[in-house]
């Protein structure tokens, strides 16, 4: 695995290129009838930060002998799950979003029925890829490792849906920090943790303390990512619309700044950042250079 | 595994009782927030013939030393996938069905968003159950066997969606027998085959000729099931509504009787029945007593 440390502009850009190619290769491996094939392609290739695959690669970089194929399959699988969730989230019965990243959402481009089915098949395709020999150049990975990856992915995928429900239930209500944390831990945190853990199980035994350390790391950055998102919403609103944090709080939106105030939210993001770095301190600095870079980027990003 | 041979009235009824209990146990193993929990329960417990679990059990009965827990998990997992597909099929953007088995469909009872999420989570729950230790009383099943089950389920789940698309594409068109067969092989056949094969891999090595024989059997009954469905549609229509096969053909509905005529369709169902029984001839009669019973029932059923 090459490192991301030499990318000064954007630590995700190399991972973005790698995953882009692997996603295309993976999509080509499936025989899907039209128009579903185009809809699936659309849902997957819309782009995005590709944070989850980047976390897979960076975790695998802890140990140079990580099975590259198993990690690449995990990265594709987790991105398939993420893209399925976006296609379903955008549907009229959910968020009814017409645009995503400047392009028509899947149901706008292909109709609701096809967008629904695109999300459905992307979920099973994720498990197919994980259990396949795609990208293999050497012997097959042990079945017990692939099985662990599947268990991690399935559990995270279910948690993600639970998080969606908790989020829908919280709409228009004022929830406390524990409830907010519960939403995000499930809705986005579970898949971010899974990205790290699906790579981790390819290099560490289940009893290795590295696994709980990486879980701790992933949980902290997953939550920090969300807190930072909430903070950026306000920052960019202030710059662009002249809205203030105080106004956001007045409309009773359940965000971290609304809940605890902007400064306290910024302090909390920093605290989670420290938690993440403390968990990584278990490893040699050079082993976690990529994970450190991504962490730094995620928490200092401006958009 | 007890046999179904002593059930003279309905060879599926014992399997129905067994799966009912196991589905409830499996559902209880998940922490799902309301209203999703109730929606998932509704989608799963609406009932139905439970043909797929029955095929799992009957296949496992070929060998008395089949791992009972692995077979029970497979039966639950495949029924979860089937129920997810029904919940999504019933949605307004698909078939827009309001009633299923005399009860309100999932989206009528819980709203479209929750029904969508119920289907989504049932798919990942299927993989969670398959990779769990639920029902285990002895040592864990080999990881390689569980992995095979997951691969079979993931592939079948994708094929099912492809079949849906092919079916949507064929709406209002006159398709030939090959196209019709392609629709059904994917839409319903894949999951029926998976039910048989997920049990088969718990008792036979991948190289055992029993596996292709059982695949052949499953493909034949999967298709026969559909041909019989098409025939029954006409028969029950004739009795209930006075519609004739001739009229059905005139509206250009793509069914086997419409395509080849009622008598030829009946002959085709019988031929597929023979194909299925020929595949089972590889085994001792006593080993496949349950599979034979189910086959007989599926092809002589009146509803």
UniProtKB/TrEMBL annotation, chains A, B:
This is (2E,6E)-farnesyl diphosphate synthase. The keyword Metal-binding applies. NCBIfam families: FPPsyn. Keywords: Isoprene biosynthesis, Magnesium, Metal-binding, Transferase. The lineage of its organism: Bacteria, Pseudomonadati, Pseudomonadota, Gammaproteobacteria, Moraxellales. Pfam families: polyprenyl_synt. GO terms for molecular function: metal ion binding; prenyltransferase activity. Belongs to the FPP/GGPP synthase family. Its cofactor is Mg(2+). One of its GO terms (cellular component) is cytoplasm. InterPro entries: Isoprenoid_synthase_dom_sf, Polyprenyl_synt, Polyprenyl_synt_CS, Prenyl_diphosphate_synthase. It comes from the Bacteria. One of its GO terms (biological process) is terpenoid biosynthetic process.
């Amino acid at each position: 695995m090459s490192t991301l440390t030499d990318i000064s502009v954007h630590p995700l850009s190399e991972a973005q290129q790698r995953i882009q190619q692997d996603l295309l290769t993976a999509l080509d491996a499936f025989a899907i009838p039209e128009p579903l094939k185009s809809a699936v392609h659309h849902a997957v290739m819309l782009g995005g930060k590709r944070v989850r695959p980047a976390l897979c690669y960076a975790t695998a970089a802890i140990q140079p002998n990580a099975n590259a194929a198993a990690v690449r399959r995990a990265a594709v699988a987790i991105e398939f799950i993420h893209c399925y969730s976006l296609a379903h989230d955008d549907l009229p019965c959910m968020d009814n979003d017409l645009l995503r990243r400047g392009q028509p959402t899947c149901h706008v481009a292909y109709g609701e029925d096809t967008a629904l089915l695109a999300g459905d098949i992307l979920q099973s395709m994720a498990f197919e890829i994980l259990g396949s020999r795609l990208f293999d150049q050497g012997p097959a990975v042990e079945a017990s490792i692939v099985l662990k990856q599947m268990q991690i992915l399935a559990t995270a995928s279910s948690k993600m849906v639970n998080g969606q429900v908790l989020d829908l239930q919280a709409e228009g209500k004022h929830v406390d920090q524990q409830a907010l944390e519960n939403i995000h831990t499930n809705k986005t945190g579970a898949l971010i943790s899974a990205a790290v853990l699906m790579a981790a199980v390819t290099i560490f035994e289940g009893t290795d303390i590295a696994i709980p350390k990486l879980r701790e790391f992933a949980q902290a950055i997953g939550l920090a990512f969300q807190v930072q998102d909430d903070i950026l919403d306000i920052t960019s609103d202030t710059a662009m619309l002249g809205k203030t944090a105080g106004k956001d709080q007045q409309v009773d939106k359940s965000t971290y700044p609304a809940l605890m105030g902007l400064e306290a939210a910024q302090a909390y993001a920093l605290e989670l950042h420290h938690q993440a770095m403390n968990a990584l301190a278990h490893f040699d600095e050079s082993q976690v250079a990529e994970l450190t870079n991504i962490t730094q980027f995620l928490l200092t990003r401006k958009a």
